[in-house]
Amino acid sequence: RDGGAGHRGPGMIGHLSARPTPFHRFPAGPKLAMLCVACTALGLSTWPGAGWVGLAAVLLLCVLPGAWFLRLVLADLKGPTLIALLIAGFQTLSGRPALGLSLAGTLLACIAAAMLFSRTTSPSELLEAVDRWLANIRVGAATRRRLSLAIAMTLRFIPALSARSDQLTEAHKTRSARRPGWKTPSS
Known about the structure:
With about 190 residues, this protein is mainly alpha-helical. Helix content is about 70%, strand content about 0%. The chain is globular.
């Protein structure tokens, strides 16, 4: 548990908030549609500040349930922030600092929106919404089951693999003075 505010249950992407928020009451389908539309709009926008405005809007939404919820989403953004900084730095070194800042803002806005979604939507609600959408466009039941299985496996195994990677890194740190990494020592 995260101070009673959230938890990572077995097989969940992100952290489903244990505390109810106003966003929990919204159905998964419309939330997923809004997430898709918002991220697509940010990705297609040619204005360099669009991502940063989008990020500010998502963070303002995260304040509505309380500061505790904002802290949870900000904690989710620690890793992606490093990636965004690397992207911005690379683009700056390549002579395109505006592009780097634009890409970084868009990346962070979309990930923050996805974290808001995942913290307020259970995996079963997500699967039901996707199944309904696919049924509405006349995708066959067998294909829908395969897609649902793929989504369920992703929701289950990505966090499990991530947790296992963290355990291996911690074990390596306690047993070796070397920094953990993929490179194996030559004999």
